[in-house]
Amino acid sequence: MTKDAIPPAQLSPGLELGRRIRLLREMAGLSQRQLAEKVGISRSAVAFWETGRSGHVGKHLGSLAQVLGVEPEVLLTGMAYKAIQETLTPDENTMLMLYRQLDPLIKLQAQKWIERRVRHTADEAQSIKTPDQSKSA
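Given the sequence above, the corresponding structure tokens read:
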């Protein structure tokens, strides 16, 4: 069984933090060396953290988060919150509130169902606009 096959509930907190650091570093387009230079640590410290050995990551958490462009909480928990100004219709608000109550697997199933419905509706609209070619022959 590889590390990637370990269920998330069984991963060590250090490994989860390491994966977040690596993902955010890669998303920022930084090498381990570049991240290390910006934070003021060694490249081996970054490699150490990314493999799940937390070392002294705590004392560098603030600068690490700043360089990666996230709040320290994102590194620690993997969760990000952003206030978004959006006006929702009452039915959209109801759908959003219901969606947020679903567990993650059901959310994924709901998203796929909605995507299928949207494609189906678009296909139907297209077939109405395009006359059936077989009738014109």
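Confidence is low (pLDDT under 50) at residues 1-11. Try to locate this feature in the token string yourself.
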